[in-house]
């Protein structure tokens, strides 16, 4: 019995040892954004669609094969026409699994996902898919839609808008200077809490001057008499979907006026039907139509509740195309729309993944002051998240931005982006390698030639670089930054004084730490040994080899 008890004790100890040595599985539920909206499981191969939403690649493939477009929990229907690998969220998912001792997501089984998708398909649709004729349900719906809305062939130029329509554009050309359009933006980084405009430069709350050709509500009595927003929306959608280009232009100009002057209707007009009609007009080859469509989108995007809806409706790729190849005025409004949409935290990653960063960087050198302004602020807000900072560094943004600072092109706004990049290790390293400290100190030294905002932003960028960098002190010493920072501490603005004082304190603390270290050279000298005898250079070693 004793032996059996001993064996049982050894066996139970072995069990306890094995259980204690195995990693504990996390009971923490993964964040909602890590789960595929269709399968509900951790995404193995996440991809992003034009609306900015991420799905597992296999789920989209199954939906395509079945000819089915699901309706998501927020009521939207995703567009699976274009997918882009979402490496940022894939890396984040794997890091979360590692930190929480959870298993990495496994490759999903096609048949399992197919069962999940089939369970989401309505019964009548499912029966068509499984036992219907040769034509799928999606093709039936397509044929029905084509029958109801036959394609329009424009065989003549009678409907082309003449030059007079430019006088009807209702998005004012002057940047609003109202004080209530500026707020203190608290970034995720503590280094750049700066006052920034929250409205694009192409938007103005004040109406344009009256003109005989201006389209007003009095010209559309049906709209004026209707108090219901749904009737107002219906009338606008009919105009926007008209086959007559002039009718489209009339509807767009009216939409711009309503959404500019009536803030309360922006939410009600941001419907699926109206956005669908607006999306098709942003791709119009008529520049006036495209410009008005993008300007209307800018007005709709001013409401916070509309921002995510617009991005998920697939407008970001269209805005990027307009920023690349649109007319000068269309580019202004496209930059303004991206800036407005980037204010919403839930949009930042999607806009970056969909490829807006490179065109926005290029737009910083635009001939239009408005395009420069809104592109810089869009980049500032997009660079508040780590994934976009890393993307910008890989795109070579640091050298581009620093060259603009040296030339004085939009320096104060460009410095905002550099402040954010300096807050991440990759950006800080790239800036130090590109001699950013000397460039920024040089800007401060020429304080008479730069504005107050530029000086403040230079100090803010230096403050961001000084944190957690052993290289900063040496580079600052070479650039003779101490004397410049002391001058800022004495004569600068309150914000600049505070940051200059903290930079000087950081440099002082590091100097004291270095003074407390053992002076090995002095110790060697005191022992009567020559410093040169212990150099590791090949020449020195050969020269002193006879001493041994």
From TrEMBL:
The catalysed reaction is: S-ubiquitinyl-[E2 ubiquitin-conjugating enzyme]-L-cysteine + [acceptor protein]-L-lysine = [E2 ubiquitin-conjugating enzyme]-L-cysteine + N(6)-ubiquitinyl-[acceptor protein]-L-lysine
Q: Does the keyword DNA damage apply?
A: no
Stated role: Functions as an E3 ubiquitin ligase.
The UniProt keyword set, sorted, is: Repeat, Transferase, Ubl conjugation pathway
Where does the U-box domain start and stop, copy by copy?
A: 29-103
Task: Spell out the molecular function terms from Gene Ontology.
Answer: ubiquitin protein ligase activity
This protein is called what? RING-type E3 ubiquitin transferase
Family annotation (PANTHER family): U BOX DOMAIN-CONTAINING, U-BOX DOMAIN-CONTAINING PROTEIN 38
- What's a Pfam family this protein contains? Arm
Ranges for the ARM repeats: 314-351
Q: Which organism is it from?
A: Gossypium mustelinum
Q: In which pathway does it act?
A: Protein modification; protein ubiquitination
Q: For this protein, what is the EC number? A: 2.3.2.27
Q: Does the keyword Transferase apply?
A: yes
């Amino acid at each position: 019995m004793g032996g059996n008890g001993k064996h049982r004790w050894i066996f139970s100890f072995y069990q306890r040892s094995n259980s204690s040595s195995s990693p504990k599985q996390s009971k923490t539920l993964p964040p909602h954004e890590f789960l595929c909206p269709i399968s509900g499981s951790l995404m193995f191969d996440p991809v992003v669609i034009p609306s900015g939403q991420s799905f597992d690649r296999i789920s989209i493939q199954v939906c395509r094969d079945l000819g089915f477009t699901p309706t998501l929990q927020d009521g939207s229907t995703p567009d699976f026409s274009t997918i882009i690998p979402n490496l940022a969220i894939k890396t984040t998912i794997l890091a979360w699994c590692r930190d929480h001792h959870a298993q990495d997501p496994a490759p999903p089984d096609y048949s399992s996902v197919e069962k999940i998708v089939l369970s989401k398909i309505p019964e009548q649709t499912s029966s068509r898919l499984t036992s219907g004729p040769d034509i799928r349900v999606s093709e039936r719906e397509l044929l029905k839609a084509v029958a109801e809305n036959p394609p329009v062939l424009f065989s003549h130029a009678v409907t082309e808008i003449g030059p007079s329509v430019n006088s009807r554009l209702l998005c004012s050309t002057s940047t609003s200077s109202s004080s209530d359009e500026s707020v203190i933006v608290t970034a995720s980084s503590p280094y750049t809490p700066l006052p920034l405009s929250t409205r694009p430069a192409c938007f103005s709350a004040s109406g344009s001057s009256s003109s005989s050709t201006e389209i007003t509500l009095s010209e559309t009595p049906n709209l004026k008499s209707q108090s219901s927003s749904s009737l107002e929306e219906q009338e606008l959608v009919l105009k926007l979907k008209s086959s007559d280009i002039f009718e489209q232009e009339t509807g767009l100009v009216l939409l711009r006026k309503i959404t500019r002057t009536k803030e309360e209707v922006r939410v009600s007009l941001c419907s699926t039907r109206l956005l669908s009609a607006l999306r098709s007009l942003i791709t119009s080859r008529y520049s006036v139509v495209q410009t008005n469509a993008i300007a209307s989108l800018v007005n709709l995007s001013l409401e916070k509740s509309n921002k995510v809806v617009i991005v998920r409706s697939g407008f970001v790729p269209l805005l990027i195309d307009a920023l690349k190849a649109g007319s000068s005025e269309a580019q202004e409004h496209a930059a303004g729309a991206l800036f407005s949409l980037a204010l919403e935290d839930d949009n930042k990653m999607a806009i970056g993944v969909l490829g807006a960063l490179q065109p926005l960087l290029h737009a910083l050198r635009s001939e239009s002051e408005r395009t420069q302004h809104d592109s810089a602020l869009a980049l500032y807000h997009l660079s508040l998240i780590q994934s976009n900072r890393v993307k910008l560094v890989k795109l070579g943004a640091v050298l581009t931005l620093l060259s603009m600072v040296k030339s004085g092109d939009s320096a104060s706004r460009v410095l905002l982006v550099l402040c954010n990049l300096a807050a991440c290790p990759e950006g800080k390293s790239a800036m130090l390698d590109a001699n950013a400290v000397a460039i920024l100190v040089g800007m401060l030294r020429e304080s008479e030639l730069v504005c107050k905002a530029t000086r403040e932003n230079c100090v803010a960028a230096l403050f961001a670089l000084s944190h957690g960098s052993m290289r900063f002190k040496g580079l600052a010493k070479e650039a003779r930054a101490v004397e410049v920072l002391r001058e800022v501490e004495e004569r600068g603005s309150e914000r600049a004084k505070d940051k200059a004082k903290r930079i000087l304190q950081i440099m002082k603390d590091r100097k004291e730490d270095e003074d407390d270290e053992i002076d090995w050279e002095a110790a060697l000298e005191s022992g009567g040994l020559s410093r040169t005898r212990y150099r590791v250079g090949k020449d020195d070693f050969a020269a002193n080899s006879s001493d041994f």
